[in-house]
Model the fold of this input.
Amino acid sequence: MATKKPAGFATRAIHVGQEADPLTGAVSVPIYATSTYLQEELGKNKGYEYARVSNPTRERLERNLAALEGGIAAPVFASGMAAINALCAMYKSGDHFVCGNNLYGGTPRLFNQVLSNYGFEFTYVDTSDLDAVERAMRKNTRLVYVETPTNPLMALSDIRAIAGIAHRRKAELVIDNTFMSPYFQQPLALGADMVVHSTTKFLNGHSDGLGGVIACSKPEQAERFAFLQKAAGAILSPFECWLILRGVKTLAVRMEQHDRSGRIVADYLSKHKKVRAVFYPGLPSHPQYKLARQQMTGFGSMISFETGSLGNARKLLKKVRVCSLAESLGGVETLISHPATMTHAAIGEKGRRAIGITDGMVRISVGIEDIDDILDDLDQALAAT
Ligand SMILES: Cc1ncc(COP(=O)(O)O)c(C=O)c1O
Done:
């Protein structure tokens, strides 16, 4: 008997959780803007009681994102940081986390300035070095927390190998997959236990809503996060859920275009005489180009490059016109930023120096505008440096 072929990624993005509304046939998921639900009599309802606990628009998004990451559930939260905070709330005082030493700056800010006050212990290591991960593991290590590629240095970590290290020590591995999106990287299939995203980025794709998600591989994780949504309440609003449902319908085509333009911009920058270094896993000169080809199906559009000094970075960022100087990434518009004073200000100069983030480094999230316009803009801005 022929087995049914599973639906492809773009088909799942457009159809799972996005089925037509059974009441009206509306092809776009309705936004259920309600805080509570009518009960016919005591103890009798249609499965919904209060919107912090459950909301039909949110349920649709959670089903959709679970299908895209290959998870069994994907609870969504009010922002990427709210999702990461909920993830940490699974653990207890005295638990130890091994973390990448080049995470999005807000993540170590949460770990060091909030959660360490509650008895959590953190060790930061270069997770692209498997021996360093192994050495950092302790008896009380419960979680290995990895971003790959890293922000903004674009260093990769071997997901399958780190999952092996974590599991041998009875710890779990979580991957922040924000930079690649599930379109280019599937950490659960490589052995990770959970995946987090700032949906604010590529999943939403249009720079118009915050959000976060944790894709789960085990029922007990899903139960725990559903409980945390109810108990702690940092859930995503129905409108923001709808924005992501709309955004993911074009995730596959957007990611293809981001990747195409990302490769062209990285190649252009690598040949520009004023650019001292380019960090992009799709360049054959990237030290982990081979690993990038093994564990990712594309390279994406996140690129960092070295202008040589704070003065040069400042001049370039003042001159850009098509590229927008702004925090964030993953939108249809090209966003350009300065990690030292923006995303990574929170880790301090010493922290930045330790991992190689310089004052001359610029990060670009290549959007899907016409590629010639992006290149012309960078050309005229680099001329000013
Ligand atoms: C890789 C990564 N993870 C997490 C976050 C936090 O997400 P949010 O801004 O949605 O809270 C960000 C934000 O820039 C990020 O870049």
The radius of gyration is 21 Å.
